[in-house]
Amino acid sequence: MSGGENGGATHAVDEAERREQPAHFAFDEESERRIPDILARYPEAKRASAVIPLLWLVQDQMRRQTGSAWVPKVAMDVVAARLGMAPIRVYEVATFYFMFNTRPIGRYHLQVCGTTPCMLRGSEEVARACRDATGIKAYGETSADGMFTLTEVECLGACVNAPVLQVDLDYYEDLDYESTVRLIESLRRGERPKPGSVTGRQASAPAGERTTLLDVPGE
Amino acid sequence: MAKVTVDGIEVEVPNGATVLQACEAAGKEIPRFCYHERLSIAGNCRMCLVELEKAPKPIASCAYPVADGMVIRTDSPMVRNARRGVMEFLLINHPLDCPICDQGGECDLQDQAYAYGMDRSRFREAKRSVKDKYVGPLIKTIMTRCIHCTRCIRFSQEVAGVPELGATGRGEAMEVGTYVEQALHTELSGNLIDICPVGALTSRPYAYVSRPWELRKTDSVDVLDAVGCNIRVDSRGPEVLRILPRTNDEVNEEWLGDRSRFAIDGLKRRRLDRPWVRKDGRLAPATWPEAFAAIARRLTALPGHRIGAVAGDLADAEAIIALKDLMAALGSANLDCRQDGAALDASRRDFYLFNTSIAGIEEADALLIVGSNPRVEAPVLNARIRKRAIAGKPFPVGYIGPRVVNLTYPADHLGEGPAALRALLGGAHPFAETLRKAERPMLILGRGAVARADGAAVLAAAWRLAVETGMLKPDWHGFNLLHLFGGQVGALDLGFVPGEGGKDLAAMLAGDVDALWLLGADGFDPARIPPSTFVIYQGHHGDRAAARADVILPGAAYTEKDGTYVNTEGRVQRGYLAVHPPGEAREDWRIIRAFSEGIGRRLPYDDLAGLRARLVEANPVFGTVGTLERRGGADLRGPAGDPAAMGESPFVLPIANYYQADAISRASDTMAECARVYGSGAHARLAAE
Ligand code: SF4
Ligand code: FES
Ligand code: FES
Question: Where does the 2Fe-2S ferredoxin-type domain lie (chain B) (predicted)?
Answer without folding.
Answer: 2-78
